[in-house]
Amino acid sequence: MAKKQQEEAKENVLDAIKFLAKERGIDEETLISAVEEGIVTAFKREFSGMNVNEVAAEIDRETGEIFVYKLVDVVEEVDDPVNQISIEEAKATDDQIEVGDQIEIGIEVDQLGRLAATAAKSAISQRVRDAEYKRIQDEFSEKINEITTGVILRRDSRNVYVDIDRAEAVLPKEGQIRNEDYSMNRSMKFLVLCVEEHNGHPSITLSRTSNELVRKLFELEVPEIKSGEVMIKSISREPGARSKVAVCSRDENIDAKGACVGQRGQRVQEIMNELGGEKIDIVDWNEDPALFISEALQPARVMRVDTEITTNEDGTVERYAKVIVPDQQFSLAIGRAGQNVRLAARLTGFRIDIKKESDEAAEATQKMLDKFTVVEDDQQEG
Q1: Predicted confidence (pLDDT) per residue in 316-371, tens digit
Q2: Which of 85, 204, 301, 353 is geometrically suited to a Cys-Cys bond with 169, CB 3.0 to 4.6 A?
Q3: CATH topology classification for 2-138
Q4: Are 91 and 97 in contact (CB under 8 A)?
């Protein structure tokens, strides 16, 4: 009966290690080494007052049997039973041993006791945590600026906590879309923003507000972007409300905007759904600033764009554009609370001033009148 229980215990050790390794994504050998180190730590703690020499532990990788050894000195006469063994007793195992040698002798694992078992458990848990932290650091450091899918665990007044591939990550306030639903157990896509060390542990920071999230979602949905045939040149975004995405094609046979919109708008609709209904305007990029600005202000129709680029004494560059639109298109060009022109300005890198056609005509007329007035004044003075 005792032998059967011993065999079951051996199997349980290996089974527990295999289960834990699979669940936590940690190498089995790493966990076995952790158990061995935990046993050594436990023994030293249990018998700390005995000044034991070097102790080692080994788990048989096939059977699960645990062996614990301590290093003892071979002597003629034993003065320290903990760290010494007589030559007569030593020769009983190996007749080649001589006085002054050191040999390993087995220790009954049962001698460890409850206190030692607790210490071993603590050491093993720490090793498991260390291995998990290393896995998280290594795995997610390679995923920075990439998309990951996670499940909402909980939230507090500032942060949302997310389970991503057996790791807990943080979605801070600045990475959250205003009024977005972060209910527990909801699955969402996130951008891995950074992996930093916090109190000695890796901390994964996520974002739902980054422009890069929009870029990566397009890469997932649009094969032509993934292959490089279509390029995203710039993105401007007000998270949760609207984004503008400027695209161009490297292949004259591919319509960049059409590829991103997809058949019946399916591709861009998938992205908008993932972003909680955020509207997305896809516009054609153009190297001509005037044409690009006209495109960026869609859905408004533009009549004329005058651009001016100046370099200041300090080397900074200012880009200014005056845009003339039909009177009835003015509100559309500006957008609600100025959103459309604001996004267009960020997308193009130009400070945009939008004027109605009638106002521009009135200004032109006034300038002309001012010129005539100056001429008349000059003539009268002459």
Answers
A1: 899 999 999 999 999 999 999 999 999 999 999 999 999 988 877 666 566 665 56
A2: 204
A3: N Utilization Substance Protein A; Chain:P; domain 4 (3.30.1480)
A4: yes
